[in-house]
Amino acid sequence: MKNTFKLSLAAVLVSSAMAANAGISIADSETGNFSIGGDVEFDFNFQDLEGEDSNNFNQTGRILLEFAGERYTESGHVFQVNVQPLMQSNGEVALDDAWFAFGKQDGWNLRMGRFEAFDMFPVGQDTFLEYSGDTSNELVSDAAPYVYQMKEARGRGSDGQIMYSQTFNNLYLELGSMIGDRSDLFSGTDYHGATIDRDNTKDSVLLRPVVGYQAGNFGIAASLETNLVKDAVVTTDGVDISDRMGYGVTANYTTADWNLIANFAYMDAVDENNMTVGVNALYKGFGLGYIHANNDYERKEIASSADGKAKVDTVYASYEFADVLQVEDFSIYLGAYYTTIDDQTDIKAFEEESDKGVRVRFKYFF
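Now predict its structure.
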């Protein structure tokens, strides 16, 4: 929903639990409601990709439809459903969210299906900021250093998920999980040069507990994510590359004009440790952010692994022209980013390059 990142920690979690207040209300009563809404988002992009020695100019975008409903019971319970199909400008049809939930109003909630759990590395008004993969899939690639952001168990993976959450005044608790085949976390055929054995994978069970607290304008949350199943994804030499443990902390400070966010994430994985820190600020429509990723590689379990460090530094900025043509919820965003890679590994595993891009985004919520 628009401007979600401006809300307090508790408000973000409550609002993300059900978005039925957006769009056009088809039915609304004391016993429940049903609404249809969505948004239109189209981008004109220009990128100077040094590693590919090319300039790309294209137009991307999609139309998202949201069907959301709630039913309330006399006992104080609530049942919720949310479906968000995507019609993309390249002709493909996809799906953002599809989930069912039930629980106690203003209390506990159990959600299942396809969705995103709590964002442990919010980047503010990220009009143009891209990394490999999506929310949970194809995040780890041999082709580039990892910018770890506590997303591996966040959701919208290839298989199902279930999440329990509860609020206690200013305290928020969440226990998310993803189940099934998680080999899609790894992009390509190799991990540190070793071949991934995709014919002998096991179904994983990933857990991601989150604890958040809001005190006035200040909010903070801490989390970890890990896989409980041994040898869920292995190389052809039998190395368990699904043995991964991640930690993260995010904090925000919000006033009428300012929204400040600081993030920290750390991943302990096979033959590498990934640490990412990020800060971003939003002031009256202008957003500015910086992300630093430090990957420390060590040749221990895989002979072809690199040894040394690889660093990624990214700066991004954006500006929102709100209520264009005096139309509420119609905005035009200008965005830009600049990123560099510093490869200090012994085998020079990555190309040292700098990429940059600019974007004009047209966004309308209905």
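Helices lie at 9-17.
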